[in-house]
């Protein structure tokens, strides 16, 4: 790796001021699990890294807001989220997802804000967070704003963040009667990068779906909601025929890409199969956890 400066600001304001929006070789670093790999491979050669490790306790906490939202500081390690009783009560699908997300060494270092800012389409968390209706708080030189996770991710390793903007907090709304599942399909070990990720969140009454969110990832350039498939679910009774229709809609709607983990046709067939399985698992009669 080429030499670079490492600065460790003690406040958010100072950190933002140290990031030059006109210089692509200056970048913030949180856990650094993705960034360090890029540096070792020579893909990124920084002149300055702005460490966010000393920003304060508020960026490392997990708490319930008065609104009922679960708030997670952007610097919170993934392992802390995995072990949190608050997360388990509010969104158990996140805890279940964490057990197959890379390995414990990575989860001990990687942060939730860094994982989202990295924009990797193979990450397990983004589709789950989109299904949960999560949003992020963002701070920059021009002020603060809030953005849905589904709007944050704009393309392959691309986000809507400006160069001098930082994610400060993740917010997950109260789920009510929504039930959420995530299916991760790998071509290798259970904790490998997925060939396909499918997250489904459903609310139902008397066997009829009243609300639905379906998200595909890994097989697409970014985690993406499948709006047409969602619309076919709302107002429907989930039976074999409904599942067949929804699965076909999901496979037709998704913009599938090929990579080392499978061809586009293979991944489309995976989506057709696992979209149906995820919907069935999210229904209360499946016995699946919330």
What does this structure look like?
- The chain is an alpha+beta fold and 290 residues long.
- The protein has three domains: 5-51, Uridine Diphospho-n-acetylenolpyruvylglucosamine Reductase, domain 2, CATH 3.30.43.10; 57-172, Uridine Diphospho-n-acetylenolpyruvylglucosamine Reductase, domain 3; 179-283, Enolase-like, domain 1, CATH 3.30.390.
- It is built from twelve helices and 14 strands.
- The chain has helices at residues 12-18, 33-40, 78-82, 85-90, 92-98, 104-109, 112-118, 125-131, 149-152, 227-233, 240-253, 264-282; strands at residues 5-7, 26-29, 48-51, 62-64, 70-73, 135-140, 143-148, 153-155, 158-159, 166-172, 179-186, 194-205, 208-217, 224-225.
- The strands form four sheets. Strands 4-5-10-6-7 form a five-stranded antiparallel sheet.
- Helix 10 packs antiparallel against helix 11 (240-253).
- The protein is globular and about 60 Å long.
- The N and C termini lie far apart (45 Å).
């Amino acid at each position: 790796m080429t030499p670079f400066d490492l600065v460790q600001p003690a406040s958010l304001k100072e950190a933002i001021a140290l990031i030059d929006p006109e210089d692509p070789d200056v970048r913030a670093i949180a856990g650094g699990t993705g960034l360090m790999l890029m540096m070792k491979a020579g893909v990124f050669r920084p002149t300055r890294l702005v460490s966010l490790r000393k920003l304060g306790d508020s960026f490392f906490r997990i708490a319930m807001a008065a609104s009922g939202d679960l708030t997670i500081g952007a610097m919170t390690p993934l392992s802390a989220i995995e072990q949190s009783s608050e997360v388990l009560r509010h969104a158990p699908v996140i805890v279940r997802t964490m057990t197959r997300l890379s390995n414990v060494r990575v989860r001990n270092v990687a942060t939730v804000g860094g994982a989202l800012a990295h924009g990797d389409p193979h990450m397990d968390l983004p589709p789950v967070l989109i299904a949960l209706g999560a949003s992020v708080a963002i701070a920059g030189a021009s002020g603060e704003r809030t953005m849905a996770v589904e709007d944050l991710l704009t393309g392959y390793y691309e986000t809507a963040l400006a160069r001098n903007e930082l994610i400060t907090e993740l917010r997950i709304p109260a789920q009510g009667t929504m039930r959420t599942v995530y299916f991760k399909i790998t071509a290798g070990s259970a904790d490998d990068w997925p060939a396909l990720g499918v997250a489904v969140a459903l609310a139902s009454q008397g066997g009829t779906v009243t609300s639905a969110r379906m998200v595909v990832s890994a097989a697409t350039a970014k985690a993406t909601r499948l709006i047409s498939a969602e619309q076919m679910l709302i107002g429907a009774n989930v039976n074999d025929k409904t599942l067949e229709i929804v699965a076909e809609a999901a496979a037709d709607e998704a913009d599938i890409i090929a990579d080392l983990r499978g061809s586009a046709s293979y991944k489309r067939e995976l989506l057709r199969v696992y979209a149906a399985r995820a919907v069935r698992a999210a229904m209360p009669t499946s016995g699946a956890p919330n």
